[in-house]
Amino acid sequence: MDTVSVYSASMKKDIKTVVIKPAGYKKGGQGWPVVYLLHGYGGSYNNWISKVPAIASYAGLHQIIIVCPDGENSWYINSPVNNSSQFEAFVSQELVNYIDKNYSTLAGNKHRAIAGLSMGGHGALMLGIRHKDVFGAAGSMSGALDLTPIVNKYDISKLIGDTIQFKWRDYSVLHLADSISTKGIKLIFDCGVNDFLLQGSRDLHAKLNQQKVPHDYIERPGAHNWPYWSNAIAYQLLFFRKFFDEANPGGPAR
Predict the structure, then answer these.
(1) 0.85 exceeded by the pTM?
(2) Given 86, 111, 142, 162, which residue has the most CB atoms within 10 angstroms?
């Protein structure tokens, strides 16, 4: 496991990132698929490894590299009013380029997935859909998938400035996702039945069903907390492993 500082040219600062390598990893050896894993509001780059220590073993189990960047409270968008908060560019371009340059990865969207919890669930689906050339699969756990009820909360208004001029709905997954925008990307999202964000996931599920968009959707017992996410991440990573295998049927045996 590495903790690295990745320089962001768009924000002119270093961003702390945890990189979890699978057992058997050797730099310069075979390439590995990569899962980018995002934290929630109020979290940081080390949340996943500190709250879910088993995630290190999941990298070995699924033979993947897991990358956990710091996203601050950015909602993973490029803020039009704050030059130091350009996290759409950072995650989808700068970070991916850094990981491909410095680690033995399999480049290309068939070998990359992105997932996250809460704010990071929003970020993962939003970035996955907006950057299908970079990510081939995306997942959300307890995601804030409808920004409408919370656009004036959780620092969002500070990031987007004038809500009339900034087309924030283009970043709300519920508004963004449809049969056209989701074509070519595999989606999975889940939420606990006692989670305050459950309705957004249900609404997205209904919309995608209505438009006949293939996706995996799961509701299970749980709330908006780490016990739920510790369980959910195992299913998300299994989904991504299947995606990597199906997208690369002639790839190396795992």
Answers:
(1) yes
(2) 142
pLDDT at residue number 254: 47
Q: Residues of 216-242 as b/e, b for ≥16 C-beta within 10 angstroms?
A: ebbeeebebeeebbbbbbebbbebbbe
pLDDT single digits (tens) 159-192? 877 655 556 677 889 999 999 999 999 999 999 9
Domains of the chain: 2-247 (3.40.50.1820)
Q: Residue type for 151, please? A: V
In angstroms, rounded to a whole number, what is the distance separating the alpha carbons of residues 204 and 181? 13
pLDDT confidence of residue 162: 63
Q: Which residues contact 57 (CB under 8 A, 6 or more apart)?
A: none
- The answer to whether 19 and 99 are in contact (CB under 8 A) is yes
Find how far residue 207's CA is from the centre of its chain: 21
Q: What is d(CA 33, CA 110) in angstroms, rounded to the nearest whole number?
A: 8
